[in-house]
Amino acid sequence: MEELVSIVVPVYNMGTSIKICVESLIKQSYKNIEILLVDDGSTDNSLQVCKKFEEVDKRVRVFHTENHGAGPARNYGIKNAKGRYICFPDADDLYEENAVSAMVQAMSNGINDFVVAGFTSLDGNGKKVTERSYKDREVSGIQMRSNYNKYIGENEEFGINGAPWNKLYDLKIIRENQIEFPELRRHQDTAFIFMYLCHVNNVHFIEENVYIHYVNDLRKEWDKYPINYIESVVGLRKIQEKTVFTWNTDNKIVFDKLNQGYISNTIKAIELSLSHRFKMKHYERVEYIKNVGRARRPGRRIPTATAKNGRTRQGRGSRRSTHCASACRGRLRA
Q1: What ranges in 207-324 are assigned the alpha helix state H?
Q2: DSSP string for residues in 113-171
Q3: By CB count within 10 A, which of 27, 196, 262, 263 is most buried?
Q4: pLDDT band at 160 (very low <50, low <70, confident <90, very high)
Q5: Quick one: CA torsion of 72, 171, 141, 144, rounded to 10 degrees?
Q6: Taking Cα atoms as reference points, which of 145, 234, 255 lies closest to residue 182?
Q7: What is the pLDDT of residue 230?
Q8: What is the pTM of this model?
């Protein structure tokens, strides 16, 4: 009997593109699926479009929440999922017809608990931007954590990108270890993968390219960063300290790469203070930049910034949550 696969799709103002995504899911050659469309407080017709799919295909279930971001929307999907395995495509991308079938087969009836597949990135005109392929390979979770320098960064042969969509997860592992997407407006996907990898026994990289990812317009990319982006930078760092930093304390390459990313993201947070989205006087901007440097201290509140709509955004230190540092260390000692 085929295992049930839960496909969770967060939807926010995707009324013009969600149709292509859901149609690719309905057409999967692997039929034992449930499609959970979580409308994240859309202000367009996304919810109505989703409900039309629910009416014509009993495998589709639609949920509506207030707007909290893609991470909390995926968590809502996890809470309501009924499958053995789970995956998280984006609402403006699509799966190849054999995607779920290829990834389930790679799980090898539960021998593996994490599958990473190839993907193709296209621009808005359908032109190929990049293509990521892997050689077929299985590796134990202990090996991966001990030698994570071989898997960090997309330039490595088996580098794992920070997106959740080209991967298949074991829902039992997620629930037993209370893993969830953190409440960060950026980098929540990377953080989730780090937490999940703490509990993985076996990983399977597969040759199939199963996912079509549409690259965002770089001119609009900056607009997707929240005003309090530094919260996401600090939040990711705290999760890294409780996960990947504990896997192999002698692996200097991993530490260097993570530190480089942290510095780069911090600089990006400072650059955001110059954005037109901030309504700050010169002295306020100077104080904000100073506080970005101090924000890493535990308990430090992120400085207030005012967006163009006049709303004040007061950041808060990321909520501490229970991760798996001790579990990771235990696996490495095993």
Answers
A1: 218-221, 229-242, 244-247, 252-272, 282-294
A2: SEEEEEEEEE-TTS-EEEEE----EEEEHHHHHHTGGGTBSTTSTTPBPS-STTEEEEH
A3: 196
A4: very high
A5: -30
A6: 234
A7: 86
A8: 0.85
